[in-house]
Amino acid sequence: MRVITLLCQKGGSGKSTLSVHLAVAFHREGQNVLVLDLDGQASATEWHDAREEKLPHVESIQPSRLEVATAHARKIGTDILILDTAPHSETTALDAARMSDLILVPCQPSIVDIRAMKKTVNLLRLVQAPAFAIINGIFHNSKSTATEAERTISRHLKLPVCPVMIAHRITYSRSMITGLTALETDPDGKAAKEIRQLYKWTAAQLEQRKAA
């Protein structure tokens, strides 16, 4: 079982949206996927409640149940376990990070969000799993802002940045309401293309980790 954690100590970074989109991408490739929703806002769980197809499964759990839930996921043959963590919860985030094969840190390309990443980066120094920032929510015609954010994160925060950047698209927000993803609502659209690229990159990172 491979464990992917979406982690950021700042709220509103897009963790839940990316969690469920990655979950569906892995599921569509034949993987048994489980999302553990550790966020009290339960955005991923509400997405699943609105979903007609019940796979991939999303389970809302208390942080104290993380170790037990992870052991159960392994026991039932889960291939990909995705941990959607809560903001402002260092203990839970650290527990999730320590059991991860890959940590993804969504960050919007604003100075406020980048400054807020310092807490997350300090936490990541306590674990061994590879971690990457994902620049998320890029507005149209602001590619230069995203490039500057990438440079700042990699140079000053010393956190490598995923080469796949995610734009601000209405498709993503709508999907969280309807229980679907961009891969399902508009498979030929730009959002779906971004998610497929993110999936391929994420899968490659897991393979590298497995081979190491």
Structure, explained:
By secondary structure, the protein is an alpha/beta fold. It has a single domain (2-211), classed as Rossmann fold. 49% of the residues lie in helices and 17% in strands. The protein contains nine helices and seven strands; from the N terminus they run βαβαβαβαβαβαβααα. The chain has a seven-stranded parallel sheet with strand order 3-2-4-1-5-6-7, with helices on both faces. α1 crosses α9 (190-211) and α2 crosses α7 (170-178). The model has no long low-confidence stretch (mean pLDDT 92).
SSE topology:
Elements: E1 2-6, H1 15-28, E2 33-37, H2 43-49, E3 57-60, H3 66-75, E4 80-84, H4 90-98, E5 102-107, H5 111-124, E6 131-138, H6 143-156, E7 166-167, H7 170-178, H8 182-185, H9 190-211
Parallel strand pairs: 1-4, 1-5, 2-3, 2-4, 5-6, 6-7
Helix pairs in contact: 1-9, 2-7
The number of domains is 1
- Which structural class should the secondary elements be placed in? alpha/beta
Rough outline: globular
Mean pLDDT: 92
Strand order of the largest sheet: 3-2-4-1-5-6-7
Weakly predicted, low-confidence segments: none
Q: What is the percent of helical residues?
A: 40-55%
